[in-house]
């Protein structure tokens, strides 16, 4: 039997949702409908999710957007730098533009609402595992509007980005492009000490800890 004819291994899935009843139902539905997916873990909080994903190393994480201790974007922020190969698919009751854009900017590969049928969810999981981007109807339009570089496209507000001053954004943009502090100072006609002050402020506001994380954060928001 050739490699193409061999049955593929099930896509491993990790469930993140603060409602235990929903997680139990989703696990049952996913595993009963198809042998193409296998649930390898679940979590009900950001902290549990970060630890569980690191332990289980799933291919796909089904990620709730809103949770009491930070939500899906926080899970993405903490997991992606360490496990860049894990794919995240947001699964939420919300179809608000700001929620969709926030998790896509943070690195999710798609966003579907909980009105999706069980069979459609299985297909969505398999598709994102294969590299596709998947969205519930009409949600893709939010993403296109937010990321399209065309006149008249309405920018979607990013609360985290909005915390930064214009000068802090300038510093972050150059930092993410690989400029040294001295080069940033020269480019912006400010002192190295002022650059350091701006970087410290950005780190504090974004709750990130180093230059690498800042660069990824800036890239996700298309500042680079």
Automatic annotation (TrEMBL):
Domain Response regulatory span(s) in chain numbering: 12-129
Origin: domain of life: Bacteria
Positions carrying 4-aspartylphosphate: 64
Molecular function in Gene Ontology: DNA binding
PROSITE patterns per the UniProt record, alphabetical: HTH_LUXR_1, HTH_LUXR_2, RESPONSE_REGULATORY
InterPro entries for the chain: CheY-like_superfamily (IPR011006), NreC/VraR/RcsB-like_REC (IPR058245), Sig_transdc_resp-reg_C-effctor (IPR016032), Sig_transdc_resp-reg_receiver (IPR001789), Tscrpt_reg_LuxR_C (IPR000792), WalR-like (IPR039420)
Native organism: Amycolatopsis arida
A matching Pfam family: Response_reg
This protein's name: Two component transcriptional regulator, LuxR family
An example Gene Ontology biological process: phosphorelay signal transduction system
Ranges where the HTH luxR-type domain occurs: 157-222
Database matches in PANTHER family: TRANSCRIPTIONAL REGULATORY PROTEIN YDFI, TWO-COMPONENT RESPONSE REGULATOR
UniProt keyword list: DNA-binding, Phosphoprotein
């Amino acid at each position: 039997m050739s490699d193409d004819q061999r049955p593929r291994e099930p896509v491993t899935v990790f469930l993140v949702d603060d409602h235990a009843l929903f997680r139990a139902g989703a696990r049952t539905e996913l595993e009963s409908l198809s042998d193409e997916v296998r649930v390898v873990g679940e979590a009900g909080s950001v902290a549990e999710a970060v630890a569980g994903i690191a332990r289980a190393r799933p291919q796909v994480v089904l990620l709730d957007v809103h949770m009491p201790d930070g939500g899906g974007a926080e899970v993405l922020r903490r997991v992606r730098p360490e496990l860049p190969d894990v794919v995240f698919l947001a699964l939420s009751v919300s179809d608000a533009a700001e929620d969709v854009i926030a998790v896509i900017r943070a690195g999710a590969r798609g966003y579907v609402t909980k009105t999706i049928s069980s069979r459609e969810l299985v297909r969505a999981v398999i598709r994102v595992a294969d590299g596709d981007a998947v969205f519930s109807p009409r949600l893709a339009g939010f993403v296109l509007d937010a990321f399209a570089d065309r006149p008249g496209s309405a920018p979607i507000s990013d609360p985290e980005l909005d915390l930064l001053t214009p000068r802090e954004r300038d510093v972050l943009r150059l930092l993410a492009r690989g400029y040294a502090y001295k080069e940033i100072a020269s480019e912006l006609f400010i002192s190295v000490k002022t650059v350091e002050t701006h970087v410290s402020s950005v780190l504090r506001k974004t709750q990130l800890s180093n230059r690498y994380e800042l660069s990824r954060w800036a890239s996700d928001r298309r500042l680079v």
